[in-house]
Amino acid sequence: MPIRKGGASVDLQQQPISALKGVGPRVAEKLAARGLATLQDLWLQLPRQYEDRTALTPIRLLQPGVAVQVEGRVEAVERGFRYRPMLRVALGDDSHGTLVLRFFHFRAAQVAQFQVGARVRCYGTPRPGQHGLEIVHPSYRMIDEAGDDALGTSLDPVYPAIEGLGPVSLRRLIGQALDRLPDEDALELLPRELRDGSNLPSLREALLTVHRPPQDADVAALLAGRHPAQRRLAIEELLAHHLSLRRQRIAQQAHAAPVLDRIALADTLRKRLPFALTGAQQRVFEQIRQDLAQPHPMLRLVQGDVGSGKTVVAALAAMCAVEAGRQAALMAPTELLAEQHLNNLRGWLEPLGIRVAWLAGKVTGKARAKVLEEVASGEAQVVVGTHALMQEGVAFHDLALAIVDEQHRFGVHQRLALRDKGSGGSGNGDAIVPHQLVMTATPIPRTLAMAAYADLDVSAIDELPPGRTPVQTVALSAERRPELVERIRKACAEGRQAYWVCTLIDDSDEVVAQAAQSTYEDLCKRLPEVRVGLVHGRMKAADKQATMRAFKDGEIGLLVATTVIEVGVDVPNASLMIIENAERLGLAQLHQLRGRVGRGSAASSCVLLYQAPLSQMARQRLETMRETNDGFVIAEKDLELRGPGELLGTRQTGLAQFRVADLARDADLLPQVHEMGEKLLHDSPELAERIVARWVGGAVRFASA
Ligand code: ADP
Ligand code: MG
């Protein structure tokens, strides 16, 4: 019976590593520190790389940074003691190339081995040194004339290093664990019919291939992580993550949520707006409206490029809660942003007689008590604020819609914490939970969204309000800084405003603040007729906000800032953005910063000042910025250049912790993964459960669904 068989394999999988030979408490502890506790953990501990010892590379053909095996004869040996002990061994071969092996730690016996003329075979990564290419601390062995000089027959796996455990012992341990791999049927969790269609190897076969590549394995594919065995493992891992998110979603949707199906108030607001909604705004609001009319919670992510007008869509959604006699909350990551929302919402809603309350960290004492009271009594129909909204002691009367802006600044747990402020917010199973709307201006590629947000529905506001002229972007070498001063002078004389953003090689707040300070002083001197302001992370929050407000009100012409201004700030009159050391910033951040201009109707420009010489990567980033203003295109490029972990931030998802899968490389697997996931959830939920347990285990993203 398959069930019993499965049960037996579960036992074996869960067998503690200490059952293996040579694993005492000390080793077990070191492994446990890396999350390795069971045999299964060792099976899934996959090689990070392979060393190819099946061939020798002529020394003349060595390339810096490319690991290879070489063999040569010792041509010269030098011992030095200048700063610390050092041993240099020059090797030559028939290709007439020379390679230096360099050692900082060595024993006398080693020195004795390296006689001129001796044959040495070594493996390592050559780097440019003082005298041509060198390898520091290569792994090597001496080959005596009569001795064994056969080449390796397969790739050697290299495992992620584990502190206090040598690579050889680790390899041996994993080998022992692999010797105990159960037979195919006991190990396999993917049903046959799901595998057959796509010609996937069994899990057992895939694991053995990846850990112990057979002689005829496709070496290039393995090194690139694209071998069918690796793809098979990646599929199961992606599937596990997908299933765990879907499970969360299903659990969430099993809760009850208030039905918010009246839209007269939203209509009234829409008619009173000073502008017409864009097609994209209408479409997304329509999706939200349909979600809100359901008796289970909406879980929707709205992606919209900077300036696409997400706030008004949120306000319309809030009207559905208010019309139903309930409350909506809008949370933003910074006080400044929250305040901007407050002003927008008050401007739109107070004329309709709706009470909008404000709750931030700086609201204290009596004022705070009064707000808490209004929130608890339901008198406050819409509540805008920062993290302060989630604090203990904040109790809503009847929260029906929780809106979180600029979600990438919040962790998933925070998002849930706001949800838990819902009517029945005790966390018990039958609670009524609010609808959730998450908004982000960091567009992420579709594939990535599929993987990261399988628990959310995703909509995109993929159109900007009319009348915006695209921002012109140029990249300038830092030497041309003086020209910029003239541009700022001209823009300010015409009544426009400008940002000057300072970044630095050293990221410490303090150093960046100093740089911003001296740039500020310098620009004040050069532009006596312009009022210059300064904001950086080391200033008191109140001063920072006063300056930002003065900039918003047009009292300040030029704002010198660190990247603290990055997210969300809306000053339509600002039309010039200058970013110093732009080569240091990632695409997402550059795009966010540039999004601060081009919000009004005036033609805007963005100047990316860079420090030459540019790395290949930096050059590509700046080119991408010059070529497009489209956040989605930029996000795709970012994914390609940096990989998904960086893009999403590790705080946000568990995606960066994949063992095998790499979303940039394996994105094409996702449609298949989704299809499999739906089938499994439908046909064999107990298998789905076990796949999640195998790969995701206890590290489930949500504390409780
Ligand atoms: P974001 O999506 O970056 O949060 P905002 O909601 O701050 O964008 O909107 C940017 C600006 O565009 C605001 O000044 C807002 O009032 C304005 N806006 C929003 N929708 C429209 C529209 N349909 N037509 C014209 N202006 C709009
Ligand atoms: Mg916004």
UniProtKB/TrEMBL annotation:
SMART domains: DEXDc, HELICc
Documented EC number(s): 5.6.2.4
Pfam family, one: RecG_dom3_C
Keywords on record: ATP-binding, DNA damage, DNA recombination, DNA repair, DNA-binding, Helicase, Hydrolase, Isomerase, Nucleotide-binding
Family statement drawn from the similarity comment of this UniProt entry: Belongs to the helicase family. RecG subfamily.
Cited function: Plays a critical role in recombination and DNA repair. Helps process Holliday junction intermediates to mature products by catalyzing branch migration. Has replication fork regression activity, unwinds stalled or blocked replication forks to make a HJ that can be resolved. Has a DNA unwinding activity characteristic of a DNA helicase with 3'-5' polarity.
Protein name (Swiss-Prot/TrEMBL): ATP-dependent DNA helicase RecG
Lineage of producing organism: Bacteria, Pseudomonadati, Pseudomonadota, Gammaproteobacteria, Lysobacterales
